[in-house]
Amino acid sequence: MKKKPRAEFDYRFDKNNEIMLVRWKDNNICTIATNHDSHEPLGTVKRWYTEKKEKVDVHISHAFQNYNKSMGGVDELEQSISLYRISIHDGVEHVPEKLPTRVRCFICHIRGRWGCKKCKKTLCIEKSYFANFYS
After folding, report:
1. What are the contacts of 12-18 at 24+ separation with CB within 8 A?
2. How far apart are CA 127 and CA 132, in angstroms?
């Protein structure tokens, strides 16, 4: 796949386990395994081409479209967890979650969008109040 041009994809279906693997070449090779989605119908996304110095429409598999549509919250949560070591109290993790509106921080009272998923306290992530409060 490394030698193929951008937006090429390939898929394989395991009939025994009913799992489909789809590989798509974007900037890097991306792989998705799914048991409920298909590679068709193909969609289009805009990607920057340095040779043409403009954005061009390229084809994308349906499985990748669905993943990209619903990945936002999961990626932000995983990024927050990887950036800040969060201890576990009472067997339940205190993990940051992005709030729909801005709320004042419990410590510094500056308005922010991050709060604890377990206890609903709003704490600044940028100033490490969240990590320090739960460590």
Report:
1. none
2. 9
Identify whether the C-beta of residue 99 lies closer than 8 Å to the C-beta of residue 122. Answer: yes
pLDDT tens-digit series, residues 87-110: 544 555 778 888 888 888 878 888
Cis peptide before 41 (omega within 30 of 0): yes
- pTM of model > 0.70: no
Q: How far apart are CA 26 and CA 23, in angstroms?
A: 10
d(CA 29, CA 6): 9
Query: What are the phi and psi torsion angles at 78 (to 5°)?
Result: -65, -35
Structure tokens at 23: 């590989």
